[in-house]
Amino acid sequence: MKRFIIVLTAVFLFFSIVNLRSHSEEEKMKGTISLSGAWALYPMAVRWAEEFQKTYPDIKIDIAAGGAGKGMADCLAEIVDIGMVSREIYPEEVQKGAWWISVTKDAVVPTVNRNNPVLADLLSKGVKKDIFISIWVSEKITTWGQVAGNNNRKTINVYTRSDACGAADTWALYLDARQEDLLGIGVYGDPGLAEAVRKDVLGIGFNNINFVYDAKTKKQVENIKVLPVDINENGHIDDDEDFYDNRDDITGAIAEGKYPSPPARDLHFVLHGKPKKAIVTAFLKWVLTEGQKYVPEGGYINLSKEKIEQQIKKLESE
Asked: How many CA atoms lie within 13 A of 215 on its CB side?
């Protein structure tokens, strides 16, 4: 009888420990994760959050766009758990405690209005890098005829971003400049800049690809044309440079390295130090594993297998 009581007590303690551990693990998977930052990452982050919450319905994920600069500032100040940053991480940010993992990839593309007066020439010839520099940085080129190589005297209406953001930073980096060097009318946010060009026949701007391609049709949005880059600078767009017609074509070109980097770039989740909350760690690990299957359909580009493994190792080992 005494032995039976001892065994029964042991069994009871075992299941109590198991239940306590299970309850503890469930408790860890409850709470709120907050993100803010890059417009470039916003659509992908929203999709990830939706899918993650299907598995973990007791976790609430709040996401706000506002530019990479805001995302970095918010995470370093610990206003949010994760900052979405669509540019390189600066050394001074690392000194302040910025810790990050790369999660996906996309690109910035130059844009014009579909009714641009010299559109046919622009699409057939493309635009060289030094022309873009002369438009946005030095202001040596001010008319559409100068861009297209004809006599059109219509003035170029140049647009840039007013908010500190990864798109402008990346586009400026491609032009051997900084965001503050970019000339033009400042417009807030990716949607705002796309809308400015969409409404202005003489406008030129730049956007992250998911703001100039329709998510359903994968075609370029109404009244916007992506301006082809003459990558080899031979004065016309060759077949292997002609990959802007739909979202699948441009993402494929980025994945294959046909589109230059910058303005192609990695996108990051940034924290103030390594994640302290278990649910944040779980979310980051999910993004790097299960979450990667949603990347192509979201209009983004998967990082290489090797790079993903590096990010997972960073998350698990540091």
From this structure: 9
Q: CA 225, 43, 129, 111: dihedral to nearest 10 degrees?
A: 20
Q: Name the residue ranges covered by the structural domains of the chain.
A: 2-105+266-317, 107-264
* CB proximity list for 112: less than 8 A, separation 6 or greater: 119, 122, 197, 203, 204, 205, 224, 225, 227
Superfamily of domain 107-264: Periplasmic binding protein-like II (3.40.190.10)
- CATH topology match: 2-105+266-317 vs 107-264: yes
Query: What backbone torsions phi and psi does residue 313 show, to the nearest 5 degrees?
Result: -65, -40
CATH no. for 2-105+266-317: 3.40.190.10
Rounded distance between C-alpha atoms, residue 30 and residue 224, angstroms: 43
pLDDT in tens, 158-197: 999 999 999 999 999 999 999 999 999 999 999 999 999 9
* pLDDT higher than 50, residue 6: no
pLDDT range class, residue 317, cuts 50, 70, 90: confident
